Amino acid sequence: MESQTTRGGTRWKRFAVVMVPSVAATAAIGVALAQGALAASFSVSGQEFKVSAQQLNGQGFLQYGSLDAEHNGTKVPVAVSAFKSAQITNLCQSVVIPVPVFGDVSMKLTAGGNGTKVQASNLYIDLDNLNADATFTNINIGVAAGDSSQGPGLAPSDQNQFTEGSFAQDAKSAVLTNVKQTAWATSAGTFKLSGLAMHVSKGDNECY
C-alpha cells in the first residue's frame, strides 16, 4: 500500500535488498500514525502485490487506463482507480518475495479493523485485476480522463500524457464490497492507517 545491512550468505543479502526498504517505509508510517495522517505511496520493486478489503466506500470516483512503471523492461498497462476520499474496512496488502535458497518470504500489512476504518484522500490505485461487488452513484461512462468533473483528476504521473484524453468513467460515489485485486502501486495524499500491523513470515501468506 517508496540502509543497508548485510548478513552472511547470498540469501540474506537478497532478502535485505528486497525487504528493508518496505520495512523502513512501514516503520515511517507507524511513526506518522501517532501524528494523525500522512502522504503515502506503496510499490514493491516493480512487482505486483495483492490488496483486499471488506468494503471501500469512496467519494469522487474516476477510473482510466494508463501505463505503470517498467516491469522487466516493459511498461505495464493498468486501470487507475482514483477517489477524492475513501473509507476502507479491513484493508490488507501483501506481497511474496522469492528469496534464492531460503524460499518465499511474505510481507502483509493490515489496518482498518475493530470498527475503525482506514481514511484516505486523493487515493490512486494502479491495478490490473479486480473482483468486487460494486454500486455507483451518478456514473458517467465514456468521459475523457482529463475532463472528469466528479473524480480527483489525473494522477500527477499521468498528466500531459496520452491518458488525458483517453476513455474513462467517473461517479459521485462508489461502494465496493468483498474487494480482491492485484495492483502495481498505491498512493494517497493522506493515508490514516488505524490499527496498522505488519507481519513478515516464511512461505506464502497473502491476503487471499
Brief rundown of the structure:
The chain is mostly beta strands. The chain is built from 1 helix and 10 strands. Residues 1-36 have low confidence and may be disordered.
Give the topology, please.
Elements: H1 10-33, E1 40-42, E2 49-71, E3 74-89, E4 91-99, E5 103-111, E6 118-137, E7 140-144, E8 167-188, E9 190-192, E10 197-202
Antiparallel strand pairs: 1-8, 2-3, 2-4, 2-8, 3-6, 4-5, 5-10, 6-8, 6-9, 7-8
Overview of the structural elements:
The protein has 208 residues and is mainly beta. The protein has one domain (10-202). 12% of the residues lie in helices and 56% in strands. It is built from one helix and ten strands, in the order H-E-E-E-E-E-E-E-E-E-E. It starts with 9 loop residues before the first helix and ends in a 6-residue tail after the last strand.
Features:
single chain; mainly beta; ten-stranded antiparallel sheet; disordered N terminus; 208 residues; 12% helix
Please provide the ordered H/E string of secondary-structure elements: HEEEEEEEEEE
**Main beta sheet strand tally, sense and closure:** 10 strands, antiparallel
The average pLDDT value, as a whole number, equals: 81
Strand fraction: over 45%
C-alpha termini separation: 15 Å
Helix count from the secondary structure assignment: 1
Show unreliable segments: 1-36
